[in-house]
């Protein structure tokens, strides 16, 4: 959530801390929405410390009431002009550009501080004096050059600038809070009141009267130009535009009210008679592929584009009368600019981590002189942290080592016994297999391993005896 403050010395963008100070942020956002801060003077400028603003009249006006909260402004109830300011314990005034709501102690309870509309922006570092006195709700993210101009401004003895510095306009970039009952946003910035004009000093006198000699038409034109610049700056801050001053291309036509059956080739054929076409594209739905009935036609030069614009208005194409205009889209320019910026960033990058070239992986190693090697190396604990660990291991460690060695010897002996038993059983098993596979002896064999003739006769005689017995 962000708010843009347009001041007479430059623009200031404030990011709001809605998670830590929701009520303060809501009050500030709604006051900006109703243009309450317009023409508010910047005062109490303390060099390298802070400045204050938010009162529409400022301290120089006797009619000033010091400002009012959004709830008191809408209801008109004086009791709601201020509200109790919450202080978040984690938010401190430690950096330049810290934005906090000015507070005062409650008359009935000095320990309770209340706020209204005025806020403070720090101009230096270590401004912790404001802790507990101003309630932080945001921080400046852009516009530090404007802060520097305010810091260098010439002031009187009451710390009021001699040259008027005022908030001209406020733009809300994002508002997550619902509007309270009765809030109506004005259609344009209201002019300064008579009471505000009476507080004007030197500088803005010329700016206040620069439009006195202009007619209503010229004033309306300037107002639209000013709003267009503000909207372009808003789109730049949101990332939709590469820069606020970007202009659409002059050689691209926008064609709408097309028939859904009209194709790219049809348009290129019809519009091609006015000049060379670089690209012709009918925009289609990404999921269904159906035509969205409008297209962009890019010509090689500006003259061809202007000729096609003058000739093709309300022409009948596929039973539809089309509308032709110059394209206001800068998406292609934005893509080219973004790609070029990313390429330059990658070219300058050294190393990278997580897909982003500028990032490096955070190193968790110890200092070089504390590193060790071998089994004692650790990435987490340093030598000082490990001293106690070595002492605690002491006698308990020795006893545990003895038990560990004994268990290791038992396992070793048991393992050797298993191995010897296995070898014995394998040897017996092999002998058994060999006995079973050995064939019975059949007579004597000679030295060459052949059966002798006497043995052969002896075996034959035995077989004949067996046969006679069987009979």
Automatic annotation (TrEMBL):
Annotated segments matching region Disordered: 176-195, 205-225, 361-471
Top enzyme class: isomerase
Please list the reactions this protein catalyses.
[protein]-peptidylproline (omega=180) = [protein]-peptidylproline (omega=0)
Question: Known Pfam families for this protein?
Answer: Pro_isomerase, RRM_1
- Asked if RNA-binding is a keyword of the record, the answer is yes
Task: Return the protein name.
Answer: Peptidyl-prolyl cis-trans isomerase
EC annotation from Swiss-Prot or TrEMBL: 5.2.1.8
What SUPFAM superfamilies does the database record attribute to this sequence? Cyclophilin-like (SSF50891), RNA-binding domain, RBD (SSF54928)
Q: Where is the composition biased (Basic and acidic residues)?
A: 361-374, 382-429, 443-471
Origin organism of this chain? Trichoderma parareesei
Which GO MF terms does the UniProt record name?
A: peptidyl-prolyl cis-trans isomerase activity; RNA binding
Which residue range or ranges hold the PPIase cyclophilin-type domain? 6-172
Where does the record place Pro residues bias? 178-193
The cellular location(s) given in this protein's UniProt record come to:
Nucleus
**Regions of compositional bias (Basic residues) in chain numbering:** 430-442
| RRM domain segment(s) | 251-329
| Keyword list, A-Z | Isomerase, Nucleus, RNA-binding, Rotamase
UniProt family annotation: Belongs to the cyclophilin-type PPIase family. PPIL4 subfamily.
Q: What does this protein do?
A: PPIases accelerate the folding of proteins. It catalyzes the cis-trans isomerization of proline imidic peptide bonds in oligopeptides.
């Amino acid at each position: 959530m962000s708010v843009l403050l347009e001041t007479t010395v430059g623009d200031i963008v404030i990011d709001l801390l809605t998670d830590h100070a929701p009520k303060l942020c809501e009050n500030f956002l709604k006051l900006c929405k109703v243009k309450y801060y317009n023409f508010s003077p910047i005062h109490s400028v303390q060099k390298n410390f802070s400045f204050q603003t938010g009162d529409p009249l400022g301290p120089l006006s006797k009619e000033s009431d010091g400002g009012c909260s959004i709830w008191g402004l809408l209801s008109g109830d004086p009791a709601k002009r201020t509200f109790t300011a919450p202080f978040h314990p984690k938010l401190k005034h430690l950096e330049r550009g810290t934005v906090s709501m000015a507070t005062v102690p409650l008359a009935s309870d000095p320990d309770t501080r209340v706020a209204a509309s005025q806020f403070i922006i720090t101009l230096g570092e270590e401004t912790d004096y404001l802790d507990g006195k101003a309630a932080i709700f945001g921080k400046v993210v852009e516009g530090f050059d404007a802060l520097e101009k305010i810091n260098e401004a010439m002031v009187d003895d009451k710390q009021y600038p001699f040259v008027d510095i005022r908030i001209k306009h406020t733009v809300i970039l994002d508002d997550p809070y619902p509007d309270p009952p009765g809030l109506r946003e004005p259609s344009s910035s209201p002019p300064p009141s008579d009471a505000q004009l009476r507080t004007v000093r030197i500088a803005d006198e010329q700016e206040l009267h620069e439009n006195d000699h202009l007619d209503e038409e010229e004033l309306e034109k300037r107002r639209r130009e000013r709003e267009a610049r503000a909207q372009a700056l808003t789109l730049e801050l949101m990332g939709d535009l590469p820069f606020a001053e970007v202009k659409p291309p002059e050689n691209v036509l926008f064609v709408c009210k097309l028939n859904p059956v009209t194709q790219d080739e049809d348009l290129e054929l019809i519009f091609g008679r006015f000049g060379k076409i670089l690209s012709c594209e009918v925009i289609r739905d990404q999921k269904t592929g159906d035509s969205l009935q409008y297209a962009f036609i890019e010509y090689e030069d500006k003259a061809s584009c202007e000729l096609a614009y003058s000739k093709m208005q309300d022409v009948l194409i596929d039973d539809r009368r089309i509308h032709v205009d110059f394209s206001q889209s800068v998406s292609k320019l934005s893509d080219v600019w973004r790609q070029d910026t990313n390429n330059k960033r990658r070219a300058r990058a050294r190393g990278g981590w997580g897909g982003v070239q500028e990032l490096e992986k955070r190193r968790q190693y110890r200092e070089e002189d504390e590193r060790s090697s071998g089994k004692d190396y650790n990435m987490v604990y340093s030598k000082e942290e490990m001293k106690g660990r070595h002492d605690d291991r002491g006698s308990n460690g020795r006893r545990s080592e003895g038990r560990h060695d004994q268990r290791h010897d038992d396992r070793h002996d048991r393992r050797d016994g298993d191995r010897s038993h296995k070898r014995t059983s394998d040897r017996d098993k092999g002998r058994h297999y060999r006995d079973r596979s050995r064939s019975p002896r059949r007579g004597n064999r000679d030295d060459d391993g052949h059966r002798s003739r006497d043995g052969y006769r002896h075996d034959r005689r035995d077989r004949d005896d067996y046969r006679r017995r069987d009979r």
